[in-house]
Amino acid sequence: MENKIKKLFIFSLIGIGILVVSAFIFVSMKAKSINVKQSENLINDYFTLLNEKKYDLMYDKLSDESKNEISKEDFVTRNKNIYEGIGTDNITINGIQVDVNGNDIVATFQCNMNTIAGILSFNNKMYISRTYDDFKIKWSSNLIFPELNNDYKVKVKITKASRGDILDRNDVKLATDSDVANIGIVIEELGENQKESLNEIAKALEVSSEYIDKKLSEPYVKPYMFIPIKVVSYSGDIVNKVSSLPGVVIKDKLSRVYPLEEKAAHLIGYVQNVTAEDLEKNSDKNYSVSSVIGKAGIESIYEERLRGIDGIKINIVDKNSDEVKVIYNREVKNGEDIKLTIDSKLQERAYDSLGNNKGASVSIDPNTGEVLALVSSPSYNPNDFVLGMSTDKWNELNTNENKPLYNRFQSNITPGSAFKPITAAIGIEENVLDPNADKEIVGLKWQKDDSWGGYKVTRVHDYGLPSNLENALIFSDNIYFARVALDIGAENFEKKLKEFGVGEKIPFEYGVSVSQFSSKDAIDNEILLADSGYGQGDILMNPLQLSMMYTMFINDGNILKPSLEYKENFEKSIWKDSVISRQTAEIILNDLKSVVSKPNGTAHGLSGLDFNVAAKTGTAEVKSSQDDEAGTEIGWVVATTTDKDKNILVTTFVEDVKGKGGSGYVIPIVKNILATQ
């Protein structure tokens, strides 16, 4: 009995011991859990404040011991200079591991931060002290970078990269980095009549006096300081206007420059400083807040090759400026020059020829498919987007009824009679059109039968000659080509147009609108088919694609692929092979020569040059119905030289030619462009 009592007593003691140990372990684990949680909160709070650049509040998280070693002012200055010096933002902390040893706590974690060098990632530690329930950071500079001691510095060296030039086929610069005039004011040099001088400067710089007053009233401004007001090109007359004015100082500034200005704006485009959206979208491409990026045209299309990538070296140096640690090093990479097939002289000539008209002009080499000029008018000066544009100027561009920002050579438009050679080629290929046969058309109006109701196809001339293909092209006979389209039939017409690439994205570096033969899936009625035969109906064509379709008449029935990037010893590339026969191509081309050479030809105005020309005109009607009197007209001319080693094919349209002579209004424009040959 006594032994049993002893055993029970012993077991009771063991049980109590287990309970005590368990309670101790539980309390210890709970205390550790609290320490871990509090430490994690401290870390997250600290780096949240860092992301918000609240350095003074970060200082409040430091232990008293750390505060004795560094003042708030020095702490704020050091953190601000280092973090902002390397362009830090979006700092994230991952994988926090907390090791608790009494009141001493060590937390390890991975730190990720966006910088001017991209994303930097590294492992680091934070030492934390606990006094009762108060958790504080044992701070040193190692918390910024592990290798950064308190007497070390972070050194940043940026080697600026150059952006590649955009060149024409003869190495003329269409876009380049060059000095521009950074025009500013030094207050103490304005003289006695400051107000009068500032008003004169504002007028010359085409800015408001209020804008200048605001710039000069900034708190940091001192009378001896150069205060930049406007950046302009040296090619304009503004520099001459202001150079002799009191208080004006002009300094060189490197900038992107577009020498052809408005004449190549839609083609070349422009660059601008990157936005936050650009940086986010291209987060893996080494852009920084100081980068520029192509926003339109060739600058945007070839951005990856044109752009340079700055060289950046971030390293830690000791108090003797000796290198301790290289945090990041990227060699500079300059941008690549892009050479285009464009002829800058022809580009300028085409733009000047269009004058103040709303329209577009495309010039190609029909033997190779090389694009020689792409012009949209009216236009804008791309230098304004780079050098700085006033709100008034931006509003004027956007509200101008002539739409200078609208790229017309990139768009689709009704081709009118310029499309007739395409219909003729299909008719011959489908064996429904005998070029020599007389369709015996009489009168100015025609309809197939009474099922068309009141709708009739109209033509301008009852020319009293055989209604064969040559005369139909010479006099641009709508009735003739409406009947050809009906003879072909909708199904075969559509099939052949698809073979020509209509409705298909044209393979070209500069994206253009996709042409169409119907706004629906098919040409679904006879009237629409008839109208389509002479380039009306739902037919929409991009001027570049129409140009390329005409190359089949010069290249034995092959449609060439357009090219914009220049290559030495370039050989033509065929986009659509043998879409018509060589014989059909010869027939159409010879008849298009007659459109120019015959006195009654609609393009006879192109005769008299030192070379032979084949051409087709077109006056496209844009109206809601056949009886609409308020509609407008678009004038077209497609013309190609035919007897030169290097031919040129020019396609030009002008909007709003109603009452100006229709396509005849465009003839002098195209003739002036051709005269450059």
TrEMBL record:
Residue ranges annotated for the Penicillin-binding protein dimerisation domain, each copy included: 159-325
Record domain NTF2-like N-terminal transpeptidase: where: 43-151
Location of this chain's protein in the cell: Membrane
GO molecular function: penicillin binding; peptidoglycan L,D-transpeptidase activity
Keyword Membrane attached: yes
Gene Ontology biological process: cell wall organization; response to antibiotic
Alphabetical keyword list: Membrane
Major location category of this protein: membrane
UniProt keyword Membrane present: yes
One GO location term (cellular component): plasma membrane
Residue ranges of domain Penicillin-binding protein transpeptidase in the record: 360-674
Protein family per UniProt: Belongs to the transpeptidase family.
The protein's name in its UniProt record: Penicillin-binding transpeptidase domain-containing protein
